[in-house]
Amino acid sequence: MERPAIRRLQQEIQQTKPFVNSQHAAGLSLLRTADQARREFDSLVSPMGISVEQYNVLRILRGAGEKGLPTLEIAARLLEQNPGITRLLDKLEAKGLVCRARCATDRRQVFCTITADGAAIVNSLDEPARRQNQQFFRGLSAAEVDTLIDLLDRLRYPETKAENEREI
Amino acid sequence: MERPAIRRLQQEIQQTKPFVNSQHAAGLSLLRTADQARREFDSLVSPMGISVEQYNVLRILRGAGEKGLPTLEIAARLLEQNPGITRLLDKLEAKGLVCRARCATDRRQVFCTITADGAAIVNSLDEPARRQNQQFFRGLSAAEVDTLIDLLDRLRYPETKAENEREI
DNA sequence: ATTTAATTGTTGACATGTCATTTAATTACA
DNA sequence: TGTAATTAAATGACATGTCAACAATTAAAT
């Protein structure tokens, strides 16, 4: 639509004002889009009786295999703080989707593993999740998805960008 | 062996597999980046005694001016469902940052307006918020920010993209 | 070796988000 | 007119996220 015009306008003025507005718009767009993605994905997993966060925990534990992972290691792989993970695991354990056991060598740690029931649920969601993702990104080409990944990664790690983008 | 069949299978795998992974990676990156943005912004507004969501409500009400907005109209402009907004406004009203009054012509509606104290807080956060945004997007050029806005918008409204991108 | 510090995980308190239901007011319609 | 449907907002119940404080265990220090 008017994107090129907007960009030209910004170059013309080249002051802080429209630059700020673009960044503000980008920030809002980021939050709104992520919220929509989270909501759509929730509607996919909730029929299985789990939340998006619980699904993520189960995915991580499936990837960890039989030896499982200590509690805080799961929290580290999510985007989450400690206290939340305990209660998440409480729920999953109550549903029989996760097992917890104190580590013998370091009794501070609690190792968590996925159960057969838990794995069955995650496995059954693999294909629907793939389709859901495909649906969500249907508006973007493969190259654009890669561009999006690049831009988002550079927002989270702005320092690492210096090496790859000196040619500006 | 059936070489053509094998080749076809490989092509299929090569097509779908990395594509799916890219979309999956993009989805995760989207959620993580938005979460980080939300968290960083929270550390900016929480010293003023308000949350990010409360800040957004105050911003919307400042923009609405003196006549204010009905409760659900605020909810519609946020990325939020009804029930949450009532309690958000409860907190803001308790802090004296927002006023609520039943509409005379339609007594179902409750009009919300920002108070002078509320406006003072939002105003005092304008400049810090601008700097914070600038800091968050420092890894991207202005053109890249526009690209990001475009990609995110097309994720939320995939249909509108069809007209502009038939040339693929 | 005994005290101190750090790590791992849990709990309590509270803010927010969501769903289902409810109340009050308004509109539709028969 | 009078009853049903719709709308605006609030409430209850519950899941999650965050902070502060805590207990248990292990590591470090002197």
Question: Would you summarize the structure shown here?
Answer:
Chain A has eight helices and three strands, in the order αααβααββααα. Chain A starts with a helix and ends with a helix. In chain A, 68% of the residues lie in helices and 7% in strands.
How would you describe what is shown here?
The structure is a homodimer of 168-residue chains. Chain A has 168 residues and is mainly α. The first copy, chain A, contains eight helices and three strands. Chain A has helices spanning 3-13, 16-45, 52-64, 71-77, 82-94, 116-136, 142-156, 161-164; strands at 69-70, 98-102, 110-114. In chain A, strands 1-3-2 form a three-stranded antiparallel β-sheet. In chain A, a hairpin with a 7-residue loop joins strand 2 and strand 3. In chain A, helix 2 (16-45) crosses helix 6 (116-136). The radius of gyration of chain A is 21 Å and the shape is globular. Chains A and B meet through helix 1, helix 2, helix 6 and helix 7 of A and helix 1, helix 5 and helix 6 of B. Chain A binds a DNA duplex (30 and 30 nucleotides) through residues 42, 51, 53, 70-72, 80-88, 91, 106-110.
Main features:
homodimer; 168 residues; 3-stranded antiparallel beta sheet; 8 helices; disordered N terminus; disordered C terminus; DNA-binding
